[in-house]
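The methods section describes the discrete structure representation at length, but only in general terms. An entry of this sort, consisting of the sequence and the corresponding backbone structure tokens, reads as follows.
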Amino acid sequence: MPEMAPSTAKGPSAERKLLPEANGKGSAGTLPDQTERSRKINELRKLIEGYDDCERRSDDLFLCRFLYCCDWNVEEAFARMVKLFKLKEANPEWFFHKPIATYRELLNRNIKFALDRRDRRGRRVFVTRLGAIDFSTMAITDLANLDDIWFELMLNEPETLDSGVTCLIDMSGYSLKGLRFLTPQNIRVGSAKADLLPLKNIEFHVVNSSVFMNAAVAILYPMLSKKIKESVHFHYSNWSSLHEYVPADILPPEYGGSAGKAFDYETIVRQVMDRADEFDRLLAFGGKAMVPVTPPLTSSAASGGKATKTKGKLKGVDKKKKGVKEVPVEE
């Protein structure tokens, strides 16, 4: 397991901007000026809008996520987006795919959530409480869907694209039943999704680990990418070590903090549920675009007789012909 790295805390950005500015963590040399950024965003938009016939998000802030984490290299950002889209299309259940109202009960279990305050470096703090998972009723894809919801909230904030996210993982109460989640397929998809997260700066801080839980970590750890391994820190129950990264004044006493008796879960969940319509619109991308097609007329219709609508796929079209795609026909 990796050793604790020394703290390199930086202060948060002072003001909110449409597009993020460098905050002194080494990105200034790769961050273009506003004019160049706008040009690169438009260039990436043209690439993604012409990629396929699926519904794709192409708003500035969404594209900026990928450009920022790729140091504004348009080709790399586009390649990263395509990999993420392909992963989503191959594993749709691993991604948000239902109206957010259907996740209300899952959100209220407070397994995963983002604090409404930032850490010393201006990073959002994303908490995962593994002991709150009900392994008898939940699937690992439920947890993956929760990640989508909360990271959509955080990545819509320019400050987060600049500063990053600090993930606090609490292993207290974690059942060994959770080992059934650690299948090679689950680890492969979960690790691939984490690697493709459009975020340049992310750290994982594990607390309340135990001998039994270390066994679970030992199984998972070798299968993680080098990037993720290097960003994981183990604090066990050493709160002063944790507070070097996550200040005590935004944590409750259970983590050695001074911010009230417990997390304000009602306020936390409202960050998402108060914007349900917006989240449904922003997260539900990637499905096939339904393009209305006028069915061809039969010979009888062409000669003035009664037209017959062709059902299913269009007939008389050479599907092997280059550039021609099958398009669903709305009845």
Notes: The first strand starts at residue 112 and ends at 118. The two ends are 58 Å apart (CA to CA). DSSP finds 13 helices and five strands in the chain.
